TrEMBL record:
Covered range of the whole protein: 1 to 297 of 505
GO cellular component, one term: plasma membrane
Protein name (Swiss-Prot/TrEMBL): Signal recognition particle protein
Membrane topology field: Peripheral membrane protein
Main location, first listed in the record: membrane
Family under the similarity heading: Belongs to the GTP-binding SRP family. SRP54 subfamily.
């Protein structure tokens, strides 16, 4: 479907004489192709522009050894820069969950994979990190969503807060905190309500929950296939709620991963996890190298 960037640049450089260093003209020519590749991978235009500028500075005058073609050299510089932008600080996927019970707030739009990701992450924390986890659904408008979390909890062997009809999200969050403290839980996860689009009521509700829970981590779950919308969503949630990281779902689909680069560049917040399917094990730590490879095609 997409032409590989290396091949594309190879074609461009066939027309140029091989020199010991990349000239400003070579770089400009190559970066035109890189720009197209970024936009095809769904990187937003301002982010693509900014990225190209950074690469241009690094690539102009860079030496080309005999073992590589100028095209390969540009691809390497682009690849390294992609990783530099995508990589967060510290260990990928690390969460601040010391001082138990540590609250993790899960936020995002309806259908983004929030409930599934909550359960996947709870499973990972339980099995991989040996944590005792409690999950609570705050989606009072959708009883089915509350039941879905309960069913997933049973399936993965993770406790869920009993559902009490008629409670508001803030009360549920407080009850989760109490139960987590009394029950000796290391972590409690609050799966907030999703909406089809960002609206004021949703934001106020999540703000109120954030204020009582004082979360150690606030993870935004976004559908990796939604491209530019994902970036817009991340910007909005970060402005209003203040996220600490992103979980990018549906990366098993054929999206090119440009949203990851844009979100990272726009919010400055790390992508911590990647959803790779519907199964409870299909959650992985974000690997900048893999996404960089995907963006380059
Ligand atoms: P929520 O409304 O945000 O809580 O979304 P759900 O967790 O209910 O997920 C919506 C649908 O997306 C469900 O059918 C999930 O199985 C599916 N889903 C969630 N994460 C992924 C993923 O990483 N890959 C794929 N292919 N499907 C996913």
């Amino acid at each position: 479907m997409f032409e590989n960037l290396s091949e594309r640049l190879g074609g461009v450089f066939d027309r140029l004489t091989k020199q010991g260093a990349l000239s400003a003209d070579d770089v400009k020519t190559a970066l035109r192709e890189v720009r197209v590749a970024l936009l095809e991978a769904d990187v937003s235009l301002p982010v693509a522009r900014q990225f190209i500028k950074a690469v241009e500075k690094k690539a102009t005058g860079a030496s080309v050894t005999k073992s590589v073609t100028p095209g390969q050299q540009v691809v390497k510089i682009v690849h390294d820069e992609l990783i530099a932008v995508l990589a967060g600080e510290g260990e990928p996927g690390a969460l601040k969950i010391d001082s138990p019970p540590a609250p993790i707030l899960m936020v995002g739009l309806q259908g983004s994979g929030k409930t599934t990701t909550t359960a996947k992450l709870a499973k990972r924390l339980t099995e991989r990190d040996g944590k005792k986890v409690l999950m609570a659904s705050l989606d009072v408008n959708r009883p089915a969503a509350m039941e879905q979390l309960e069913i997933l909890g049973k399936q993965i062997g993770v406790a869920t807060l009993p559902i009490v009809k008629g409670e508001d999200p803030v009360t549920i969050a407080k009850r989760a905190k109490t139960q987590a403290s009394l029950g000796g839980y290391d972590v409690y996860m609050l799966d907030t309500a999703g909406r089809l689009s960002i609206d004021e009521e949703l934001m106020q509700q999540v703000e109120a929950v954030r204020d009582v829970a004082n979360p150690r981590e606030t993870l935004l779950v976004v559908d990796g296939l939604t491209g530019q919308d994902a970036v817009h969503t991340a910007e909005n949630f970060d402005d209003r709620i203040g996220i600490t990281g992103v979980a990018l779902t549906r990366m098993d689909g054929d999206g090119r991963g440009g949203a990851a680069l844009s979100m990272r560049a726009v919010t400055g917040k790390p992508i911590k996890f990647v959803g790779l399917g519907e199964k409870m094990d299909a959650l992985e730590t974000f690997e900048p190298e893999r996404v960089a490879g995907r963006i380059l095609g």
